[in-house]
Amino acid sequence: MSGGDKLDFEIRPNPQPVAAAERATLLTNPGFGRIFTDHMVTIRYAEGKGWYDARVEARGPIPMDPATAVLHYAQEIFEGLKAYRAADGGVTLFRPDANAARFVESAKRMAMAPLPPQAFLDSLRHLIEIDREWIPDTEGGSLYLRPFMYGSEVFLGVRPATEYLYVLIASPVESYFSGGVKPLTVWVSPDYTRAAPGGTGAAKCGGNYATSLIAKAEAVAQGCDDVVFLDAVQRRYVDEMSGMNVFFRYADDTLVTPPLGTILPGITRESVMKLASESGLTVAERPVSFDEWRADAASGRLREVFACGTAAVITPIGQVRFPDGEFTIGDGEAGETTMRIRQTLVDIQRGRGADPHGWVHRVL
Ligand code: COI
Fold first, then answer.
1. Which keywords describe this protein according to UniProt (predicted)?
2. What are the tens digits of pLDDT across the range 110-169?
């Protein structure tokens, strides 16, 4: 297969799917990323052969040789997107083409073979079709889709692998943060950075998340929900959180978010920028220093701060902690603008709001 060619998927239904009653019990409180559907998709790649052996099969362990490249040099990328149950029983996805395109960009940065977007999109449709009963029908529920790909060649030399395995799994989810949309307390990491210019910050590779773990653990030890990284060069400017982009809403109705470069080009981030600007806010991408953040929160010029991402949707930030103290954003509660943008976004995602940009893709 090459370019936009279509792959044929072999469908091998799981002979022992989870029973309907057990599935219903699991779906009553799925949390985030704890339970999984009956199937997965796999597609293989080999240099000189291209993409082949596309399958939908029972979800299960992947046998791995101990010398598999990814285990040594972390050549791995992933995506995250959600399938929603529409009011008429159909199933929709939000901007899956953007995830497919970013998956290609991440692959290029990590010197991996890019999966053609058509194969990415077809894999989503096949998995949703076979596991559609796993999509929660609650207001906050969705089926989180996790496409990922890694260097599967058995080889210890340091060079790009010549073989890759693409895998798609799915997990019914509710809220990413256990408190739902209640305002977060965040920890500004004094010691750790996430990505430097020229590094992999803009790629959705597992390594970026691995580096965030110690800082997030420190945040939790400080009684916080998540960590905010500052830039790696000057250690002054807000970068992003462990898995979310950040927005600042000022009293003059400007909405500011850090510029692209070392941060993930979030699809939710881009959607929020568009929705905010259409709702009359002035949107700007510019660096925001920690000093400025603190001073503007104190003066009241800064009214609201929120985090956004596929998993987190839009989650307000109420409290900011750092080694020398802490400060509150506004009255510490969820801001009106934050919740309004959130509602507009969620209504589009769930098929209730007008969709002038054609972001919602009907799958079934
Ligand atoms: C997502 O929002 O989908 C992500 O991949 C972030 C991860 C922290 C769950």
1. Amino-acid biosynthesis, Aminotransferase, Branched-chain amino acid biosynthesis, Pyridoxal phosphate, Transferase
2. 999 999 999 999 999 999 999 999 999 998 999 999 999 999 999 999 999 999 999 999
Q: What is the DSSP letter of 329?
A: S
Q: Is it the case that residue 5 has pLDDT exceeding 80?
A: no
The closest residue, in CA terms, to atom 3 on ligand 1 is 80
Please indicate whether residue 206, judged by its CB atom, sits closer than 6 Å to ligand 1. Answer: no
Whichever domain contains 137, its CATH number is 3.30.470.10
Task: Report the first-to-last Cα separation within the chain, whole angstroms.
Answer: 26
Contact 181, 342 (CB under 8 A): yes
Determine if ligand 1 sits within 6 Å of the CB of residue 310. Answer: yes
Does any domain span residue 360?
no
Inside any domain, residue 209: yes
Is any ligand 1 atom within 6 A of the Cβ of residue 80?
A: yes
Q: Determine the residue of 244, 263, 264 to mutate for testing ligand 1's pocket, defined as the one with the most ligand atoms within 8 A of the Cβ atom.
A: 244
Give the number of domains in the chain.
2
Q: Is residue 283 located within the same domain as residue 193?
A: yes
- Residues 155, 250 within the same domain: no
Residue to substitute in 271, 310, 314, 349 for testing ligand 1 pocket (most ligand atoms within 8 angstroms of CB): 310
> Which domain, by its residues, includes 140?
10-173
- Tell me how far the alpha carbon of residue 160 lies from the centroid of ligand 1, in angstroms: 25
Residue 5 in domain: no
CB contact burial 31-69 (16+ within 10 A = b; e otherwise): ebeebbbbbbbbbbbbeeeebeebbbbebeeeeeeeebb
